[in-house]
Specification:
The chain is an alpha+beta fold. Helix content is about 15%, strand content about 15%. The chain has helices spanning about 10-15, 60-75; strands spanning about 5, 20-25, 25, 35, 40-45, 80, 105. Strands 5-2-6 form a three-stranded mixed sheet, with helices on one face. A two-stranded antiparallel ribbon has the order 1-7. Strands 3-4 form a two-stranded antiparallel sheet. Strand 3 and strand 4 form a beta hairpin. The longest helix has 14 residues, at about 60-75. The radius of gyration is 17 Å and the shape is globular. The relative contact order is 0.19.
């Protein structure tokens, strides 16, 4: 998996609230307006219609945002997950933030404190650089 939940306290507290329908992460991908991040979200299924997710040719974030606009976003029953939106132009949870700053992190490199590799495993065929890879390195 490339999304790590580092701290679930906000998620658990919010989803126990019956007035909350969804927990979302926003992204302003390349200045094209706020969209909802699709690699991680929580939605209570009873707020969605059977036709909520039509197949479209749009990118995932735009399509998803339009699909939940009326049933979730317009009625204000959602909550934005604090400190999880990207600081960069990428629509990737926690992107541009320090690993410990965001409760949810979307990353394509393993963080050695979370996903460590045993010392007897040779990972040089997969990661030719020295292990552990610096967390600041991005794909």
């Amino acid at each position: 998996p490339d999304v790590i939940i580092r701290d679930d306290s906000f998620l658990m507290q919010s989803m126990a609230d019956p007035s909350v329908s969804a927990l979302l992460i926003g992204c302003d991908n390349r200045g094209k307006g706020t969209k909802v991040h699709t690699d991680f979200f929580v939605i209570k299924p009873d707020v969605l219609s059977a036709k909520a997710f039509p197949l479209t040719g749009e990118n995932a974030e735009l399509s998803f945002t339009r699909s939940i606009q009326e049933s979730v976003l317009d009625n204000g029953s959602h909550r934005w997950i604090p400190d999880a939106s990207p600081k960069s132009y990428l629509c990737r949870a926690g992107d541009g933030r320090d690993f410990y700053e965001s409760p949810i992190v979307h990353e394509h490199f393993l963080h050695p404190e979370v996903c460590s590799v045993p010392k007897d495993i040779d990972v040089t065929s997969v990661f030719p650089d020295a292990w552990p890879l610096p967390w600041s390195r991005r794909v």
